[in-house]
Amino acid sequence: MNDENNEPLRVLRFWRDLEIFNIPTTPTAKDNTPQIKVTTLRRRGPQRTLPWHRTEFAPTEPHAFLHVVYVGVADVEDLARLVLRGILPADDLSEREVQRVSGQGWLAAFVVNEHGVPLPDSYLAASYAHGVHAFRETGALDNVNARLQRAKEEFAQRCHRLAQADEHGDTTASAPGTPLRWEDLEAEREVVCALLGDGAQKAALDWRVVVRTSRIKRSKLKDNQEAATEFLNSFYLDDLDRLIGQAEKQRPFGAALTRYLGTAIKSDGRVDILTQHATMAQLVSAQHLPRARWPAPSKHPLVLAQQAAVAEVLRTLDPGSGILGVNGPPGTGKTTLLCDVIADIVTERARRIAALDKPAALFDEPVQMAGMKFSPLKRTVVDGTAIVVASNNNNAVKNITQELPARAKISGEFEPVAYFDEVIREIFRAQKVLDDEKQPIDGWGVIAAALGNVGNRRSFAAGFFRDERKSKPPTATPNMAVDAPDNAGDNEAEETAVTDDATSRTEPRDERPPTLKQILETASEDYARYQAEWKAAKRAFLDLHADVEKQRAVLVAAEQAARELDRSRVQRETLEASLQSVAETLAASEQALANSRARQNDLRALMQSHQAMLAQCEAAHLPSLWDRLMRWFGRETPRMIARRQALAAPTQALSETGTALSAISRDIAQSEAVLQRERDRHQAVSRELATLMRQRQVHQQALDAGYATGAKHFPDDAFWSLPSDTRHRASIAVGPALDHLRARLFLHAVELHRTTILANASKFIGNLRVVNGMLTNTLQDKLPADQRPRLWDVLFFVVPVVSTTLASFDRLFLGMEQDSLGWLLIDEAGQATPQSAVGAIWRSRRAVIVGDPLQVEPVFTVPLRLTEALRRQHQVDPAWSPADESVQTLADRITPFGSWVSRSTNGVTDDTRIWTGMPLRTHRRCDDPMFTVANRIAYAGQMVQGRVDDAGQPLPTPFSCVLGQSAWFDVASRRVRHPVSEDELDVLRQCLTALRREPAHGEDGKPARLYVISPFRKVKNACQKVVKDGQFDGVECGTVHTFQGKEAAIVFLVLGTAPGPQGAGARAWATGAPNLLNVAITRAKCRLYVIGDTQQWARLDYVRELHAALPVIRLPSGTQPSASPEHMPSLFDA
């Protein structure tokens, strides 16, 4: 195989080598729970006592403690600098690199038992350190895995020298041994640090140790020891290595990954659907209208671009496989779009269920799995219907799996709906899912589940199934006995009975809502009832499906009629013009013929007159006998000469008149023939026009029938003549009645799933018991990887949507091979590095990539110069580099329908424009000026405001705020410790104080949510301190990255930076692209307050647009508050 000609293989190797240099991060105090404590330790600091020497972590009889130790902990920025200098000693990180990395990384990690004794097999050295060492030695990274394995073996040897194993060589939590000391931890750091070179060993870094301590039931200690070792150098290395191996063996990838790694579509193969109306009309055709929709309010349909995206996703991907990019700027309804896609997929599976003769036909013949009876689902029913939502952004994952099951996500116009609602409430309780106000969420159905990490899987299992069998199976019934597992007395399942210790102590078991297992046990006792319910649900679904199809047929006919009316409108105008022309010609011809006939009559009369005159002349000059005799001899007598002369004039006149009469008679005959043809043409055109008008009447009736359904628009000439913003707020070929019907079809599809599960209760009890064991990892080696796809079939049948981060994808879907998942929906894909999605795409038959390359870019910790060196080494095009690309940009490049977006502020510079796939453009989040500024700096004015009145004017959100309208608080900073300005913090403090005195609120009267955002981590930290010290409750602080995918009524944007050259680099980084400013300002729904120095910021790219749009309030600087914040005079009191 010629690797030089195999670009996908070179790209995969490039990405694999980059992942080797990924700097993994430690847990933080944010991860603390009642059972988990994260501690940061310094040998010479106040926190120096190692956890296994502290009384609070002393083991007890019921509980043990497990410590995950991270040594050589330092800021990621410092470690990235060591990596760069280890390979390129003379280089340093750029401002862009400094700002893109955050958190703290580590050099090595391992697990320590409650006695402080390390577990030898738990060791993991940082791959980037071994990568630096390998690159310096050989210039290649092919043997890094071998180096890591050797490092693990060497650690085990060091452990054996430190600890004494028992006679069986046991070094588990129960084994004696020597506890680790500070000297041991520092020695471990030095072992790895030496790999980075002399510069690392001499670096005066703030080295520290981070320990994640877990309190665990002793009965679960073994499982948790395995889970504790799940820390990784890179979440994607295993998948990349697997795909490299497949490519090296020349085994083809599935369609989705093949396209993802394929060549970009050329410019002439791309269609800008914002300007090419014919293509957009095809995309939103009623023929492609999905049969189902999410039960959102029927008066709020998808708008034009959303309709195009959903229809294109289902039209191109649902019948087969592939990948499609969807570009969603802030507030344009990405989640709404995904909900409709999910609804249609679930409905399609219900259609397959409805084709079954009976509920039991859902299953193939039973098999043995992990010693239990398992009934696989028929592939014809479930194939290709699994839905996974993934993202690098936890908020995006949360949005899907917490919003979809919430009752608030179902419009109140629909009758009370429930899909095992008691189960989702128990799952939410087990997973501690709360709303934004920290209150429990009322769920309507177990439609989605967050399963990414081990904790999520176990807490989900506890709320979902909770198999609490002890030493004997549940009371058998005739229906259950068939599917009881062969080892029904197995105690392994007991370990999964309760995963939340705190909850189990405070909440009596009998007060909990029933789990699905208990519901199924009850259903299995009433077989006949649920068989009847299944038949009723099937019939109701099919009837409603038929109603939807009838309505769709009406709309398809109406759309076709609209097109025919447009086409025939030109034809009608042509025929009418032709008829007019023929009529005019006919009239002229008839007039000319009448004139000719009149002339003919005149000539006839004249001829008669000449004949009479000639007769008179002849009579007057009759020749004598002599004259006749002489003429016979050829002589002309004088009398005959006189006769000839007398007859000459009348004879000539008669001849000329006869000639004229003959000519006009011939003309009349020809004119009559022409006139007849013209009359025939007139009649033909009249008949054609009459036929056309009858056809137009039929088409108009069909169009009127479409309008009668409630549809307001069809993709006809009248629609495309509307202003652009009006079109993008409109919907094609749908109305409230049909949308209500489509939403009900989805709900009936869910109900058919519910009755199918209950009608097969016994089989599902047995199946879900095995699924539960897979989720909680209690089956371990009893469950081969190749059996797991059948288990996922069962779980996806019950819970249609599963969410996970991309980082957890390969561990969650262990054993799931190429194309084994039906649908992959990646949200916020603009934040994901290109390599982070390859494993997920490889496992998926269809991939929908949703995001925005003009919002937050991926977090990428590998130094850019090292990235460039590896790229050149692998001969890979820059288009594949994670330094500048994302999952979204790679998906957009292979999506044929989309739009060009200029990245220049004037919107006309071609060399800065980018291609985005399937653009969403109707924004419904922000008031002005946030909307207008973001639209101008990032989207070349392509977005339209979705919240408008009947006249198309923006409708600001009713909102009351003591600080007034959005503004820029101009602070000429003097007290600066770059990038933190104390003067700006004073202004922030006063703003927050004013809002505490008089909280801002909307129409509902509830206090408004408030964010404090900065582009810079140090400024964010300083703002957090202001909030904490001032006890400003409910205020969230973070960098721009923190708030991607979130929104608040009020946003403070604290700019920071030192004046002049000292802060110029930081400002240049923050304004090098519109992304950061775009995200920051579009978090604000109602008010945006910028705090910063206009002298330093206002003339910079993109910021100048914001400065021009905001009133500037100039504030004094250099003043320190003399009173507490509560009593401090406010700059806004005036």
Task: List key phrases describing it.
about 45% helix, helicase, Helix Hairpins, six-stranded parallel sheet, Coronavir_polyprotein_1ab, single chain, hydrolase activity, six-stranded antiparallel sheet, alpha/beta
Uncertain regions spanning at least 5 consecutive residues = 165-175, 470-509, 1118-1130
Fraction in helix: 40-55%
Strand content bin: 5-15%
Give me the count of strands. 29
Question: What is the CA-atom radius of gyration, in angstroms?
Answer: 42 Å
Shape: elongated
The averaged pLDDT comes out at: 88
> Number of helical runs?
38
The class by helix and strand makeup works out as alpha/beta
Largest beta-sheet characterization: 6 strands, antiparallel
Terminus-to-terminus distance: 77 Å
Give the SSE layout.
Elements: H1 7-20, E1 36-41, E2 63-75, H2 76-87, H3 95-100, E3 104-105, E4 108-112, E5 124-125, H4 127-138, H5 144-162, H6 182-193, H7 198-202, E6 208-217, H8 221-228, H9 237-248, H10 255-260, E7 271-272, H11 277-283, H12 304-317, E8 322-327, H13 334-354, E9 367-369, E10 372-374, H14 379-382, E11 387-391, H15 394-403, H16 421-430, E12 448-450, H17 454-464, H18 501-506, H19 516-524, H20 527-620, H21 625-632, H22 638-708, H23 717-720, H24 724-728, H25 736-759, H26 761-776, H27 788-798, E13 801-805, H28 809-812, E14 821-826, H29 838-842, E15 844-851, H30 864-873, H31 887-892, E16 897-901, E17 914-917, E18 922-923, H32 930-939, E19 944-945, E20 959-960, E21 967-971, E22 976-977, E23 980-981, H33 982-997, E24 1001-1002, E25 1010-1014, H34 1017-1030, E26 1035-1039, E27 1048-1054, H35 1061-1070, H36 1075-1081, E28 1084-1092, H37 1094-1097, H38 1103-1109, E29 1112-1115
Helix pairs in contact: 1-9, 4-5, 12-13, 13-20, 13-25, 16-17, 19-26, 20-22, 20-25, 26-27, 32-36, 33-34
